[in-house]
Amino acid sequence: MDRLPLFISRFSGAAGRLGGIATQIIEDRLQLLALELREAKIRFVQALLLACMGVVFSLLGLLLLVLAGLYVLPPEWRLLGLVVTATVSILAGVVVFSFLSRHLQRKTLAFDQSLAELKKDTICFSTKN
Fold first, then answer.
1. 45 belongs to a structural domain
2. Is residue 20 part of a domain?
3. Selection from 29, 27, 31 nearest residue 19 by Cα
4. Where are the alpha helices (DSSP H) in the chain?
5. Number of domains forming the structure of the chain
6. Domain that holds residue 46
7. Of 36, 39, 20, which is closest to residue 118 (Cα–Cα)?
8. Residue 29 near residue 118 (C-beta atoms within 8 A)
9. Phi and psi at residue 6, in whole multiples of 5°?
10. Pick from 61, 69, 63, 66: nearest CA to 94
């Protein structure tokens, strides 16, 4: 009869330690998830700013196209000035959009590290030690 309380005591102690370890693992994974969420938010804001800059330069190209035709050049040079100004502004917009595209392709998936850690946890707990 004395063995049963000892067995229950050992079992509850092991269950408590296992629960503590599981809680610590979950806490670590949630902290990693929060960090990756912050990084994803920063990347989103950067991409949004680059997209806005591309739109601004493209619209600036159209605006300069109209203004150059109306005010800047003498009549015999207006067409050439219009084409040059519009081309430079539109090329600036294209460069910003290509930079945005490369920036987005270069980044890893959001929560990639969390997924990798969860896979490691699954492998660790599924193998027989």
1. yes
2. no
3. 27
4. 3-67, 78-106, 112-126
5. 1
6. 37-126
7. 36
8. yes
9. -65, -40
10. 61
